[in-house]
Amino acid sequence: MAFLDDDFLLHSTAARRLYRDHAEGQPILDYHCHLPARDIANDRRFENLFEIWLEGDHYKWRAMRANGVAERFCTGDAEPYEKFLAWASTVPRCLRNPLYHWTHLELRRYFGIEALLDERTAPEIWARANEQLRSTALDAHGILDRFSVTAVCTTDDPADDLQAHARIAASGLKTKVYPAFRPDRALEVDSEDVFNAWIDRLGDAADIDITTFDRLLDALRKRHQAFHDAGCRISDHGLAQCYADPCTKQGAAATFEKARADRYVSREEQRAYASYLMLYFGRLDAERGWTKQLHLGARRNASTRALETSGRDIGYDSIGDLSQADALGAYLDQLDRECALPKTIIYNVNPTQNYMVATMAGNFQDGIRPGKVQFGSGWWFLDQKEGIEWQINALSNAGLLAHFVGMTTDSRSFMSYPRHEYFRRVLCNLLGSEIERGELPADDSLVGRLVTDVSYLNAVRYFELPGVAGC
User: Fold this and answer.
1) CA distance linking residue 445 with residue 224, whole number of Å
2) pTM of the complete model
3) Residue 295 belongs to what domain range?
């Protein structure tokens, strides 16, 4: 069998049939990503393969560091071609790492390049790709069209002005592009210098002088409404652990005032304050019919040396080992008791907790909306073949795969859309193998519908994004 041929990851006749008849032609609903809205607004034209492929990809940077590549070729001041050559020399060492699959899928699907990337082929691949990047078919809008992306939800801070989204909405772009509300900075009350600068930015965006805790809540509500008016229907939180400590409004206000006065805020005070705000955000989401996303469990910026020399969020992160069940259950339960639990997706980065998350989701279904609380797709270190299979198996065993909203791109790169193909091939291979073994019926009207729904239609139904049709 040839590498990356048409039957890649499809190891049975049934798997190939399911993929070709029910998954391959489905559009993409990119409901969670980190694409810069300004790049879409500007219909960015990429000057070279570095810009579109390596510019912000911490997955590749981690592999390069592991291969002995100096930081200047990752996040430093090396020239774009030098950085590309450093990546090309790393790729042959990535065998069995998902990056090897992704790299060559991306070269094929974007540029039609089937050569294996290494030091020898790098100059020709650089030249061929750069030539094609001059075409509008591979600018930001062209890529969204090529991969049939019906909607994109970027990740945006409440203090962002949303001007780029206004420009996109006025551009006539066929793909719908909406912000997603990511208020993580509002919780960082124990980082007084960062927190106070952010509060000032939020006040400017909301046109509110945030001198009290009540004014902070007013500003957040106002920005939540502004996001809703811009088409936002999704919020997002990146948390090491869910917050669910008891906290009164008076207690949260006292902590806010300490932070604004540049006084020390303890870890315990921060947790209580964050718990109060997370309930507030949950109520806002429920009021407006949004979906809340909880990304749990990452150990971020683990290297102090790298943080001090190179900055945040550049690939020095790992899977964490914090307990999740009690706080997550308490948070969901509090909102549920108030009849204020929004649609919720829980992403877990620690595979040892897959069954906890899958069963926790089942505690808070409401008997009205199918799959109201979801165990989200394999995320970050788990969005590879094995991690995807683990997540699908845990969800299937503890819940209903039939209502799963499918793959999340979760990427900063316009080169990541083949990850949806990768996910769909893994899904079809799992189901097709079970058909071949007699564990599922050989009924494509039944199993094929499941594939179509998980690949695309469930997400359309679940998120209810303005102007996105497909049911």
Assistant:
1) 41
2) 0.97
3) 13-46+137-463
